[in-house]
Records
---
Amino acid sequence: MTSTEAPTADNGVNVDFLLSAREALAAQPEGAQFKWRVSNTWVNGTHSQSTVNGFFGLGEEQNHRAEFTFDGDHPELFSSEDQGATPVELLLASLAGCLTAGVAAVAQNRDIQLKAVTATLEGDMDVRGILGVDPEVRNGFNQIRVTYNIDADASPEDIKALVAQSQKRSAVFDIVTNPTNVIVEVA
Amino acid sequence: MTSTEAPTADNGVNVDFLLSAREALAAQPEGAQFKWRVSNTWVNGTHSQSTVNGFFGLGEEQNHRAEFTFDGDHPELFSSEDQGATPVELLLASLAGCLTAGVAAVAQNRDIQLKAVTATLEGDMDVRGILGVDPEVRNGFNQIRVTYNIDADASPEDIKALVAQSQKRSAVFDIVTNPTNVIVEVA
């Protein structure tokens, strides 16, 4: 017999694992110290390629199942060759991926079955900043808007709460909304 | 006869165009208001796919030469399927692409011939933040280190100055090191 208390949602997230990882890393904080890495190689002009492969976590070197590569470039509008997304679009993709993974994980934890989740992101930029026209204009985005469309077995209030909790636990949302220390050196 | 004053470096960046764009957008700031966009679709579990296509700039809708897609996921270590880079690795790729494009553009402007540019990026994260173990631990990176290896027709001091100027004009460096307003809504 199935208990009415048993979770029925299956969003493909192993919440039991995440809860046990939380417990294990609370007891062994040194295992929680991760290092995420990218290597980048200039191709030509504003075009470069980034490669993601290994990372460090749970006390040892780890590998992805496969190597992931990302081309970055500027568009033809800026007299570049448009061989890849612009770096700021890649940043929006990073934010989107983080928030959406969070939505799925939180939904699983709350036993909410997701049917479809899409998001559109838009970042406003005054390019007079990066072109050095006006020192009062920042280089980055003035604002980023993220709009979710979520079809799920839940009330509109519960869906809003899902998205709010995802923001609260999102690594990239934190990095973008708060200052992060970046040290750039030449070897 | 070639003047000794004529630029000789060719890094594939059209600096004349960028300088004329700077002038044109100083006179017409409304053309400098860009909107960069990404759409994101949840696949399963922590796996989602982001798509980059059009953007708004120079007063009208623009398109990339091609559509760019990026898969984001969590690694097997977190009991996910590792169908793509983690969102925080994508963020490092974004930062790398922005700084390297800047190095090439600044080198062109200073008539420095680049031969090879590579960078390694590493971000430290205490995953007790995203797992909700300790509210004192932030979700994002504690620090990001970027190390450039640059082979160019220039002194070590000039190469360091290139990288410093690239940081100063980088959109993503600004977004990561300073707070950026992000509004998340449910449609």
---
Amino acid sequence: MRICAATEADREAIWNIFHDVVASGDTYAFDPGISRRDALAYWFRPDTHTYVAKLNCFKQSSSEQAERVVGTYILRPNQFGGGSHVANAAFMVAPDAQGQGIGRAMGEHCLSEARRLGFRAMQFNFVVSTNRSAVRLWQNLGFKIVGTSPDAFRHPEKGYVDVYVMFQSLL
Amino acid sequence: MRICAATEADREAIWNIFHDVVASGDTYAFDPGISRRDALAYWFRPDTHTYVAKLNCFKQSSSEQAERVVGTYILRPNQFGGGSHVANAAFMVAPDAQGQGIGRAMGEHCLSEARRLGFRAMQFNFVVSTNRSAVRLWQNLGFKIVGTSPDAFRHPEKGYVDVYVMFQSLL
């Protein structure tokens, strides 16, 4: 797997992942019907570093190797002014590529990038409590739950569920 | 005092308050040098309800009464999609009009508006812990501290200080 800064050429693959992840409506507080344009504007906001995770794979009709974008993440200041030393990040893995450690690899890459860029901490503002694999992954990578908003997410099957703020110092 | 929806005619007064409040850099995570254009775009975002608090006052050179904008607040969904039932709000009072209960009056008005608009809860994402009067006011109005991000705000005099997430159900 290779994780690198996203380029124009990755936009279509990112939109496909974004659309698939958001359509389920069970992990992210985006409108599931968000347009391609709005989604990419958010993911490539001027203050945002955008990355992709690529896997080598064989093209179906030949033995030629190709790379496939299987995940993407963004890293940016969580706030402006006096809050800009804390990073925020968001991660998405293609639904058919989940369970292969791509989220973990991107998480580790992201923490390293955040340190390189001089951020002093990282915060996730909106981790849906029923997204157990994400909560567990972030805890494994050093994040702590520092806040709980009761019933702050309407899960499509589970109804109103809690949302966590997760945080870790990078010092 | 009168609290009502902001109009085009209030933009100059709102910008003056916004600028004065943000310039101090000790309560809000905005760039203290934010432009008028960016500030008003944020305060009048399409998904945002914008209000002003007006006080009757006498014009200096006559006995004619006039209204002065002494405070402003915004109310909007804190998140999209599955998080849109929780409201977010932000409040600003003109520095020379503080300590007169304008913040409290706007807070009560805001909670009532949020209920009227059908929000199920309200969350403040970024209450600087050293802003004691704000923390106390929100607690008096029913908010609880549900999260603490350590050292997440760089106060211009006090250095790195904690930031609270404050929340209350409206049901």
---
Amino acid sequence: MTSLASDADLMALAVRLYPICRSITGAGLRETLRILGASIPLRLIETPSGTQAFDWEVPQEWNIESAHLIDPDGRTVIDFQDHNLSVLNYSEPVSATLPLERLKERLHISTRNPDWIPYKTSYYRRNWGFCLRESDLRQLRPGDYRVEINSSLEPGSLTYGELLLPGASKREVVIFTHACHPSLANDNVSGLVVASALAQWLADRPRRFSWRFVFAPGTIGTLCWLRNNEPDLGRIDHGLVLGLLGDAAPWTYKRSRRGNADIDTIVPHVLRELDPLSRVVDFDPYGYDERQLCSPGFNLPVGRLTRSVNDGYLQYHSSGDDLSLISGESLGRSLLACRSIVEAIEGNRRYLNLSPRGEPSLGKRGLYGSIGGASPASFQMAMLWVLNQSDGGPSLLDISKRSGLDFESIRSAAIALQNAGLLTELSGME
Amino acid sequence: MTSLASDADLMALAVRLYPICRSITGAGLRETLRILGASIPLRLIETPSGTQAFDWEVPQEWNIESAHLIDPDGRTVIDFQDHNLSVLNYSEPVSATLPLERLKERLHISTRNPDWIPYKTSYYRRNWGFCLRESDLRQLRPGDYRVEINSSLEPGSLTYGELLLPGASKREVVIFTHACHPSLANDNVSGLVVASALAQWLADRPRRFSWRFVFAPGTIGTLCWLRNNEPDLGRIDHGLVLGLLGDAAPWTYKRSRRGNADIDTIVPHVLRELDPLSRVVDFDPYGYDERQLCSPGFNLPVGRLTRSVNDGYLQYHSSGDDLSLISGESLGRSLLACRSIVEAIEGNRRYLNLSPRGEPSLGKRGLYGSIGGASPASFQMAMLWVLNQSDGGPSLLDISKRSGLDFESIRSAAIALQNAGLLTELSGME
Amino acid sequence: MTSLASDADLMALAVRLYPICRSITGAGLRETLRILGASIPLRLIETPSGTQAFDWEVPQEWNIESAHLIDPDGRTVIDFQDHNLSVLNYSEPVSATLPLERLKERLHISTRNPDWIPYKTSYYRRNWGFCLRESDLRQLRPGDYRVEINSSLEPGSLTYGELLLPGASKREVVIFTHACHPSLANDNVSGLVVASALAQWLADRPRRFSWRFVFAPGTIGTLCWLRNNEPDLGRIDHGLVLGLLGDAAPWTYKRSRRGNADIDTIVPHVLRELDPLSRVVDFDPYGYDERQLCSPGFNLPVGRLTRSVNDGYLQYHSSGDDLSLISGESLGRSLLACRSIVEAIEGNRRYLNLSPRGEPSLGKRGLYGSIGGASPASFQMAMLWVLNQSDGGPSLLDISKRSGLDFESIRSAAIALQNAGLLTELSGME
């Protein structure tokens, strides 16, 4: 099993994944999931072309061997091998010669970042095209151009990867990341790397919740997953979409559509402790797969963690989003944040004070100094808070927020009180 | 039918209404309603003197022909024909001679604005008197004064005007304005003019709601209307009291007693778009007929729209509130605001997303570009918001507020989605 | 009966109580309650040693005659008669000689205030010791010291004092103050004095509520009271813990655990009117007997009024908290605040408007001027507010806050309207 423990491990995996031409179906996607499978026991699920997923249908499977654009002088001006963004993703096969004026309808540049090749797709309407830098476009001379796109669009299947780490309870936490973007490092090689490393770390730990990791193509992949799992969605207590976790920006948490789910308290709390520059933004219906998971028919308690946000950095969806944009250190810090979120979710329990009438005597249980008159130390204050608030309502995180004491103190106090027989956990779990 | 479409039309109606001596009963009130009847098909309702309206009783009808105050030298120092404010409104008939010292008990000046004639009434206790400028009071010489007030207080009736514009539903919106003030231009010739013009404009338009316009004397007139309509008050979904709409001040919206009625969201939203200087104030139990409509036994969802507020401008309730205080432009802008409020009430629908599990495919319905990778345009964002939020809870206005997108974009998106079969309206209407 | 009416009376009582060596049981506590009994008819309740009070047990009764520490030269370096803080409260009897090195384990100083004798206790573990200034500690020469503590720990009882002032209703307001601290002036001779004076003042007044005053040892005394009164706790509508009321700091109100009890509105309102520097702080589970009263198994609507807060002043729990820290004026002002709180609790009624449909005619009842046209005076506005809001929900204090009119105007308006037959009180009281 390939280890994903160090920052260098994370970056090495990113370097390995970056060059692959992924899409919402096809060989690149499967190869990506197989590489992840060397680090975590990922199960691959195939959904055949033509399968209905709510309002959508799984399209034909797309594969591509090579693509060239050859100018009137016979020079290759675009070669798919140089950069897989240079072909419109899901381009149908074509072998043709056409004059520059007609070719131009098939050429895409980025108006925002003319120096980079833009990332363009056409999954649901048959089309072909090339993407290129504006300067390269301007150098194209008039005349007839040769187009060769050796791709295929045929009945096949859409692939997603899934890993379930069972816990003491069948109640679930789901972690999503999209797996369909080709050579774009931050969006979303970074998400694949961090989600895999998180799963590997968590696999060796005791778990209260069952944790489900899903690596799926955006939109249609997540819709397939929702379709395949619809009867069991009621098991999900918390969820998080991961993406854009390798750049240098501080973290941004985007709230679930509900806005008041537990995850909407937990993640902001964890991030605030790790980085005061981290931000929390409201839900909006654009972005990654929270679009599907938080659609009104599902309305799952799923938030999203990124560094930069979608469309929030200069290199977004262009060849500028390359390996130089991300770093092992940044991936590693994001992994740390995710681990802290896991610990907060696992640790954020609710307890019931078993001696609720008056303060129980902590002194006779050795939890309080026997000499009175001085003010309690911070750990004793944490115990008083936990005892006072544990009436079945507030969670430990709620108590941490109300008291102003840090989560770890509150959690330790709860454990000490539970060991002393003064608290019982309210699981609310199957 | 007299048109009330242009600013000049509005001002012309104000000029025509201003000189009439209105009161809570009598010929001036009826004449006013008949003049409005030339623009809108107003129905006049008469409630006989002595009728009980909750804690109140319709008083005897008051009419006045003329009134004079003649000084010891035989000179007419006050003539009702010069200004109808100069007689205490509801003065009983009197023909008498009395010395200045005793007369003074019957003379009213404005301590706040000594240069203007104050507006004073005595509807519910028999009384008579004159109102005058302080400088005129000071010039009165000692001696015997002749008083002639040719008025009558006799069994008759109280008149109010009503117009119902039926809509697709029997659910109602009520628009109130008081009709009892004599020669006071802003308070409330302006309200009569704007409410009439609004009704005329709305009469020609399709309506989802039924709209009811009431032109009634303050307090007792509104109480008569409430008494006559009590069994049907449950039909009212929204209401607005109009007044003080012709001066130059920015608009003020006063919330309903409930404070969280739909009208309390709708009007502030509309005003904010029209004038950033517009204000919103909390309900208080003083003012115009919101006092009655929002009394705890009715507690109707009725707010109030004015420019200046009652008692909030120098000329309030004095002869200074004349035609120079108002303008056709200001009346016209207030009419525009009222029209926008009507459109917002009519347009603020609730929809249900018919494809709520996941985002429906907008692309296959031609509502989304087929080339992916770029960020959605604002209209596409509006569609995503409407789809995501339309679970039966939020109205379009709620969605506009949550998304930060303007109401018209949200409304257009909803219509496009409804046409595509993705939304159905939830009327909640009979 | 000793009067507690003037500031001088209050200070005289404080001077009399200060020297007594109180504890959670014993003669000093009983003597204290007997002295208070000269001003108010206090009933003393004894709970035997060994009685279980929830998680606690009443300890053996402690009494002390004398205590000395004699140095190697035969000089008395500590004498209990000089300051009762100099003996660890609840020290067991001891007669022994031991070298300085072993003695030091039994000597307590204040690290925070080395110039003062700290206040230390050991109620629940047998122990003995002395408390002293750091400078005195440093002067102790090596050698053998003679220790004589003439105390006793024997089966006896815990004493608390209680006074019930019955009101028209059996619904109760409880006032708590702790009675166990020895020579500490602000904490809590001040509380004993103010609570007694408040009870004396209130004994002569008509009361809607029944008022219960409890003078009890901290923690165990309050737990005994709770144990003895558990079946009747449901009668308590409001409660207040008093303490630290004699120093010069502005008042601090600490909210009940509920945070939204009526008392949490009433006290802040009263304090704001008396002193703009007064503060309101959230509940926390440390402090005085609100710890027990607001434990989750009781969760009583009890707040706390102090000037400085526990642990919030330099002299806290040390010999620096002596009579120079408090003043008759400060005690008197605190008494005034407590009186105002009593009046607000007694006066904060809820009414029902008996003429809720429309505004009732105030004019025909002589409550409104008969000449219309001018704005209502403030008393008339208060009547309009009370009528508009009295639908069974808001209390007079709620109406005062919503209207911005002062509580006394609102209360007077309610009385005038009740006299006019327009309001009826909703007691909600047995």
---
Amino acid sequence: MANDRYQKGIKKIQEFTLTHSAENPAGEMDIGEGFKDIAPELSKYVVEFAFGEIYSRPGLNNKQKVLTTISALVAQGTPQIELHINSGLTVGLKPEEIVGCIVHLIPYTGFPRVLNALKVAQKVFEERGVFVTTSDD
Amino acid sequence: MANDRYQKGIKKIQEFTLTHSAENPAGEMDIGEGFKDIAPELSKYVVEFAFGEIYSRPGLNNKQKVLTTISALVAQGTPQIELHINSGLTVGLKPEEIVGCIVHLIPYTGFPRVLNALKVAQKVFEERGVFVTTSDD
Amino acid sequence: MANDRYQKGIKKIQEFTLTHSAENPAGEMDIGEGFKDIAPELSKYVVEFAFGEIYSRPGLNNKQKVLTTISALVAQGTPQIELHINSGLTVGLKPEEIVGCIVHLIPYTGFPRVLNALKVAQKVFEERGVFVTTSDD
Amino acid sequence: MANDRYQKGIKKIQEFTLTHSAENPAGEMDIGEGFKDIAPELSKYVVEFAFGEIYSRPGLNNKQKVLTTISALVAQGTPQIELHINSGLTVGLKPEEIVGCIVHLIPYTGFPRVLNALKVAQKVFEERGVFVTTSDD
Amino acid sequence: MANDRYQKGIKKIQEFTLTHSAENPAGEMDIGEGFKDIAPELSKYVVEFAFGEIYSRPGLNNKQKVLTTISALVAQGTPQIELHINSGLTVGLKPEEIVGCIVHLIPYTGFPRVLNALKVAQKVFEERGVFVTTSDD
Amino acid sequence: MANDRYQKGIKKIQEFTLTHSAENPAGEMDIGEGFKDIAPELSKYVVEFAFGEIYSRPGLNNKQKVLTTISALVAQGTPQIELHINSGLTVGLKPEEIVGCIVHLIPYTGFPRVLNALKVAQKVFEERGVFVTTSDD
């Protein structure tokens, strides 16, 4: 199964994760490995399609890709936002940019979605010992 | 009504529009002026809150703010995306970046939302005589 | 088919419509009559369940029922909001209350959903020759 | 920061909360104080914009404002509904009205969203020792 | 209250549940019995309308009805999907069909909704000792 | 570009379309060909991933795949439902099954989404000269 698209996808995934290794090539990224018993080809779709094709496109840099992802997940209210806030920090988004992106969506999604997302960001920042430099009031 | 926040908001709006002038300070931006008969204070909320406060925050640059907005609107499927694709071009997003952002969302929102958004992007690019430089296949 | 629940539903519907008559008992209310060819029992569900049961519940008055409906439709972005803005006027909601309800949702659904709903309200008010008395700025 | 809009917002918030005091002017209302470390200006947006401007609008009374809010949150499925069921009781909505509003939405949002919201209402009513007077079967 | 539609609904419900008995006619199906204190007529709506009318329609068989339900709940992201994965197994859907349906939605709802639903399916399969026969790679 | 997955996808697509030919291998299926100018690789994603991989999975037959798709699109309210109602008829779903699936969703998505979808079904049935055999009232 280790074809070209799979290899390309795994390599791309590693740009977004901290802890990948030979034994754990996807690091902390959830590539659907937990569904080997009921949907074994799922991780293939994530690696080959989502990362090997979509994330490998030119046009946006990695930081922009994560900002785009986080914004859509704020609008949806899906819990996967935690994973992508982590990825964002890994590719070099400043916590100010992540918070900036979430708060920017108040006029578009309303406060509840934004507050829910900020709670997740706060938790991730704490876990990774990251601080927001605030100077704006 | 021309208080500080309103002035700040109008100035910020002008960064996102091409055609603003003394007579038409908001240019092509829809600031809710069309609702003067039923909700006269609406444009005040758009100018003072959305632009005077939220768009005036530090943390993200204007290009990032539009990418964030477009991403959320793809996920929602709201027609306001047309306006913001226009704003994106005005603040200097390359059409490749706008398309890149929309296509990047396939794994997060599915194809239908993405196809609907691309149709709008295509229309805006045509109207503004903008071309996508494609080299990726 | 003219059982008790159906009669009760039709009577309830007439409280929300202007133009009902013996020939057209549902007036301008869309009770799914247009689907007689493909789903003939649909109007039965609308009349008997939606109006004969749900709209016939105690607890809220008719004005509150329409406000509740409009609010949910703003959040969903479904086009049925036009019908219910009409119903609202018929049961005596003031246009200020309808606009008030829609604009109140800015912090919960964001501006795009609200602007889309206001456009529909504006159209309905025009068609019915109804004006908003505005004094708030 | 204690400008006019902020004062107006805090005063408005107190109409929706039970336990506010000089030390805790917002009472049990979540005005985003928990995000002081990552988004310090968030509570300003909630107080000044959401309450100082939107909740301070004429057109709807406080009970109508909460009904409108709850309805939109049922449609969205966002957890903030708990806070607003509490606010509803504080401004004098009867539990029958809150339940009536949620159940009224079955034809518009389907059963799942309604059942999820009723579970929250049930929890809040229990916490506040409030009972629904039911007579309708 | 034990009218015809109610009896018909209860009988229909029993087709979708394993453990129903004289004392517990709805088995593990959640028919809103838990809301007797705040919305006593809710279970009536579920039994009479949802099951006595909608689930009793011709046109689709029981397996198709559950597939249809699960698909909509994947798109919505509502937690009721657990109950309906259980119902699906009870009416004879193979676990491969349930997983097949959820995974089929990746191009329409994106990965996050699908991953969240698969997690629920995995839990239900474990609880019921059901295995997916996988041969597809 | 005519690799294995592409060929497999095109072949799968043809099972869902009436009018495909050597010149127009995808028939009436929208595979994103209209976006060649701004996102030339889009049709590759549709053909190779959506059809070559996801639609080519075992577990569900083609009729079940379309029912699953239609159900999710009813819940989303996306206009692509028209295309998939057409596909459904092509793979042999009876119009009664398509209507049955849409109407079955009333308790899960509410009436508005269902009415909007029925309108589309009605249009497609008319265009293809297909009739619903109704016997249920």
